[in-house]
Each structure stands twice: as structure tokens, then as C-alpha cells.
From TrEMBL:
High-level lineage: Bacteria, Pseudomonadati, Bacteroidota, Cytophagia, Cytophagales
UniProt GO BP: cell division; cell wall organization; peptidoglycan biosynthetic process; regulation of cell shape; UDP-N-acetylgalactosamine biosynthetic process
Enzyme class: transferase
Protein name from the UniProt record: UDP-N-acetylglucosamine 1-carboxyvinyltransferase
Binding-site residues, UDP-N-acetyl-alpha-D-glucosamine: R97, D319, M341
Swiss-Prot/TrEMBL catalytic activity: phosphoenolpyruvate + UDP-N-acetyl-alpha-D-glucosamine = UDP-N-acetyl-3-O-(1-carboxyvinyl)-alpha-D-glucosamine + phosphate
Keyword Thylakoid: no
Positions that bind phosphoenolpyruvate: K22, N23
Length: 435
């Protein structure tokens, strides 16, 4: 397990460019299985989860060609379905969340697929019912083998139908859209997730020959086609990285320009950070964040305490709630942070409390943060990163703190942030990676 040794209290400055989006990459990479033709993808982030998924595609028989640092070509012409039965498949597929989206394409193109319980962040229960109920409605048979913890699905043919999802699951919607694209007839998905990465997936599928309408809404119509063609696709900038950099700049009083953010795809993210008092200027497609001695959390119009909660898109993404929480610890004012979706994502506040932050964990979903307004600095401590976003939040806290901090298990951070130590050091941070 690698660790970061962080010297706190340094102001950063300069420009930083976000990586291609992690969660978009996981969807898009699975979609290459839908065609035997070549798919070229640009802005692929070099992060652990994505590297693992590319590796897994290669093991399944996809021809993978690296064109440059961020561009790859994929050709899923000869798929080795025997690979499902190997130990290697079990081990690799179980180590990331995104592998669940191999199911939809494999089911629709080859009539069967199986997967062990997927990994990803341990942030509470992460059910998969939406995926499997959707596949069943399309005509697939589903079996969960308790002994091996494997999910099996198979179908001689998928048939389009009306599906009202019980929840707007992001990866669930992606899976069902991919399966329905090659099903016979028309599928309607209501209560579909509609975040930018799903929109990107649907647009890519349409370029491949799929017939999807309603993109960007929670009502998708998919007219099944018999085959899909190759295409070229470029990933959006990672909105969670962008939010993390906004929080980092505010916490460390740094002047940072975040380049090429894809502003039109950021939804309510910039406004949510503005409600914490963080100033920012939009310069073309860049976000400029000035160095701020202090930032004050707004109250609601009636004077009551601000509440920031996650919600399905176009609401505020749950993946930035931990960042909001850490940024609030040095703001002026009070905020109630409400993580509605995941039930174990706020426990990392213990570490922030050890660092001197004033936080009351009300229950697993809610924490009240009483900002210190820089009257007291956080102090460096030794801690372990529990999940990807808590990990980056702790990194931000450590960069703003007095003294040295150590964060263990930084592989959690590497799952989603490309070379974060090197990129922040280039802005003046002092982060040493120790193996
Ligand atoms: C690989 C990937 O893309 N991971 C993302 C994906 O995970 P993933 O697709 O696994 O997450 P889901 O959208 O399925 O659900 C996330 C959680 O929210 C709950 N839920 C979901 C929808 C809803 O209407 N109500 C509700 O309570 C679910 O029960 C679950 O606990 O979307 C999540 C929600 O944006 C993000 O945190 C993850 O980073
Ligand atoms: C929860 C996350 O990832 P995953 O779904 O891959 O665990 C995340 O990206 O914040």
C-alpha cells in the first residue's frame, strides 16, 4: 500500500487541466463490445479503474491498440466467452464497479454474460436490482449463484419493452440502454438516469447506428437495430475532478485556473460551490479561482442554515459531497451536508475532527459543519483513505493543514485521479509518494 507524505500550508498557483472523465470512460469502454468494428476513443484517463477495465477487455479477446497517451483503438471481433470461467476473470471483474457494465453489451451481442459481485467504493449498500430487473424485462433469465457470488444472465433473444426503473441508477441505465440497442423492437426506459456521461454514451451509440431519442431526459426511447458499427469518441472532462480542484483552491487559498472544463456539462456544480462563498470567474471554457482569505457560506433566503444534499442528475452529484464537506470546515458559517444516496460515505469525518475540524455527524447521512473561518488551522495527522472521494478530501485537508500529514492506502485515490501528486506538485504542492 502506497502512502502520501504531505507538507501542509503551501499556497498553490497555476493552471491545471482535468483528466477525461472516469465514470464516462467506464461506460464507453464497455460499449466497445457492442460491435465487431473498430472504436477509437480519446481522452482516456490513466487511472487504476480504467486501466483494469482495458486489461479485462483485452483478456476477453478485444484487440487493444494504444495510439497515444490518451487515445486507444478497440476491436471486439473475436470474444472469448470461455474467459468467464477463469479465476483471472473473477479476480479482475470483482475489483471494480465499472465491470458491471460489461453485462449489457455481452448479453445483447452474445446472448449470455456472467460477473462476480463488482467492487468499487465501499460506501454502503450498492444494490444491482435495477440492472437485473431491466435485463429480465428485456427477456433475459437471471440467476445469482450464492456459493460463487456470481450473477448469470442469458437470453436467446432480447425483446424491446416498457421499463420503469425503480431508481435512476447510472450504471443500471447504461447497461439497459446498451442491451436494448441490439434488442428486437422498441424499448422505453422511464426514470432513466440522464447525467452527462450517459448522454455521451447514448450519443456514441447513435453514432454507431443505434436509434435512441430522449437523450438528456429521464424518458429514453430505443429502437433496436440488428448491428452496430465502429465510431470515434472523445471523453468529457471529469466533473468530479473539476469540483475537487475548486474545493482545493478555496481550502488552500490558492489562485488556480482549471482549463477546458466543459462548462456546459457541469450542471449545478459551480453554483453549489458558490453557495459556500467560493468566488470563481468563467473565462471562456476555463474556471479561474482567485486566492481567497475567507469565504462565507450563504444562508437560505429566510436566514436558515444552508443545506447541501446530493440528488440524481440534474441535482448535485453524490461524488462531490465529501469535497463540499471538507471545504466547509474552513468557511465562515455553518452548513448541513446531506449525503442521501450512500450510507457509509461520511464516516471519514472522524479524521477531519482529529485534524481539528468542527463537525457533528448527526447520523450516517448527515453532518453539520461549523466553519472555522481560518481562526484555527487544521493540523496534520496520519490517516487512511477509506474511499476515492474521501481520500481526495483528506488530501485537500492535509494540503491546507499545519505540519505534515500522511495518507495511507492512496491506491483508493489513484482509482480515480490521474497522477494527482505530480499534477498538484507542479502547482507548488509538496506531496511525496512513499511505497
Ligand atoms: C462507475 C460509476 O459510474 N459510478 C457512479 C455511479 O454508480 P452506480 O451506478 O453504482 O450508482 P447508482 O446510480 O446505481 O446508485 C447510487 C446509489 O444511490 C442510490 N439511488 C440511486 C438512484 C436514485 O434514484 N435513488 C437512490 O437512492 C442507489 O440505491 C445507490 O445506493 O453513479 C453513482 C451516483 O451518481 C456515483 O456515485 C458513482 O460514482
Ligand atoms: C463511487 C465512485 O466510484 P465507483 O462507483 O467506481 O466505486 C466514485 O467515482 O466516486
Amino acid at each position: 500500500m502506497a502512502s502520501f507524505k504531505i507538507t501542509g500550508g503551501l499556497k498553490l498557483s497555476g493552471e491545471i487541466t482535468p483528466q477525461g472523465a472516469k465514470n464516462e470512460a467506464l461506460q464507453i469502454l464497455c460499449a466497445v463490445l457492442l460491435t465487431s468494428e473498430t472504436v477509437t476513443i480519446h481522452k482516456i484517463p490513466n487511472i487504476i479503474d480504467v486501466v483494469k477495465l482495458i486489461d479485462l477487455l483485452g483478456d476477453l479477446g478485444v484487440e487493444v491498440k494504444k495510439l497515444s497517451e490518451e487515445s486507444y483503438q478497440f476491436k471486439a471481433e473475436n470474444i472469448d466467452l470461455e474467459f468467464f470461467g477463469t479465476k483471472e476473470y473473477t479476480q479482475k471483474a470483482a475489483s471494480l464497479r465499472g465491470s458491471i457494465m460489461l453485462l449489457g453489451p455481452l448479453l445483447s451481442r452474445f446472448g449470455k454474460a456472467m460477473i462476480p459481485k463488482p467492487g468499487g467504493d465501499k460506501i454502503g449498500r450498492r444494490r444491482l436490482d435495477t440492472h437485473f430487473i431491466g435485463f429480465e424485462k428485456l427477456g433475459a433469465k437471471f440467476l445469482f449463484d450464492n456459493k460463487s457470488s456470481f450473477y448469470h444472465i442469458d437470453a436467446s433473444a432480447l425483446k424491446g419493452t416498457y421499463i420503469h426503473l425503480d431508481e435512476a441508477s447510472v450504471t443500471g441505465t447504461a447497461n439497459i440502454v446498451m442491451a436494448a440497442s441490439l434488442a428486437e423492437g422498441k424499448t422505453t426506459i422511464y426514470n432513466a438516469a440522464c447525467e452527462p456521461y450517459l448522454q455521451q454514451l447514448c450519443k456514441m451509440l447513435n453514432r454507431m447506428g443505434a436509434k435512441i431519442t430522449g437523450i438528456g431526459s429521464n424518458l429514453l426511447h430505443i429502437e433496436g437495430v440488428s448491428e452496430l458499427k465502429g465510431t470515434e469518441h472523445t471523453m468529457l472532462p471529469d466533473m468530479i475532478e473539476i469540483g475537487s480542484f475548486i474545493g482545493l483552491a478555496a481550502m488552500t487559498q490558492s489562485e488556480i485556473t482549471i482549463k477546458n472544463v466543459g462548462l456546459e456539462h457541469l450542471g449545478i456544480i459551480p453554483d453549489t460551490f458558490k453557495r459556500l462563498g467560493i468566488k470563481m470567474e468563467f473565462r471562456g471554457d476555463d474556471i479561474f479561482i482567485p486566492s481567497q482569505q475567507s469565504y462565507e457560506i450563504e444562508t437560505f433566503i429566510d436566514g436558515s442554515i444552508m443545506n447541501i444534499a446530493d440528488a440524481i442528475w440534474p441535482g448535485f452529484t453524490p461524488d462531490l459531497i465529501s469535497i463540499v464537506l471538507v471545504v466547509a470546515t474552513q468557511a465562515k458559517g455553518t452548513v448541513l451536508v446531506h449525503q442521501k444516496m450512500f450510507e457509509s460515505r461520511l464516516f471519514f469525518v472522524d479524521k477531519l475532527i482529529d485534524m481539528g475540524a468542527q463537525i457533528i455527524l448527526c447520523d450516517p447521512h448527515r453532518a453539520t459543519v461549523i466553519g472555522l473561518n481560518r481562526q484555527i488551522n487544521l493540523r496534520g495527522i496520519s490517516m487512511t483513505s477509506p474511499d476515492i472521494r474521501a481520500g481526495v478530501s483528506l488530501l485537500i485537508a492535509a494540503l491546507s493543514a499545519d505540519g505534515e500529514s500522511t495518507i495511507h492506502n492512496v491506491e483508493q485515490i489513484d482509482r480515480g485521479y490521474q497522477n494527482i501528486d505530480k499534477r498538484l506538485n507542479a502547482l507548488g504542492a509538496k506531496i511525496e509518494r512513499v511505497d
